[in-house]
Design a protein that fits this description.
mainly beta; seven-stranded mixed beta sheet
Length: about 130
């Protein structure tokens, strides 16, 4: 895969990715909804293939026991989250240019608020990897 780049709205935080991006998922968990104002679409990449190249305005928020979320304190962009595993999870909206990726599924649909419907036929999961019956 060719190098992929991304940044926040104001450009204070920039990153590059040299590894393959995973198929993105639409997350409807309470944290993603509160952070984004709707649901969040993100992908992930191996941590060794992710590099911050500019960190002006980067602020980390420990949103749970397992996840911290990186955002720009200057422009407010929610850019990525770190679950402490081997991957970095990246907001699709922060990536520059075309990725060729399409949303593969919906996760945490049991937490979805009632102000919108999921109207596509993509797979839906009650949690990160628990299929709905």
């Amino acid at each position: 895969m060719a190098k992929q780049t991304g940044q926040c709205l104001c450009g204070g935080i920039k990153f590059e990715i040299t590894g393959e991006l995973a198929q993105p998922h639409a997350c409807h968990c309470t944290q993603c909804v509160k952070q984004s104002g709707h649901f969040a679409v993100s992908t992930h990449v191996k941590r060794v293939d992710f590099k911050l190249t500019e960190e002006k305005g980067l602020k980390w928020y420990q949103s749970s026991d397992y996840a911290r979320r990186g955002f720009c304190q200057d422009c407010g962009s929610a850019i990525f989250w770190d679950g402490g595993d081997d991957d970095m999870y990246i907001s699709m909206g922060s990536l520059e240019g075309s990725t060729g990726l399409k949303v593969a599924n919906h996760i945490f649909v049991d937490e979805k608020p009632d102000h919108y419907e999921i109207s596509d036929d993509l797979p839906k999961f009650a949690s990160f990897d628990q299929p709905l019956d």
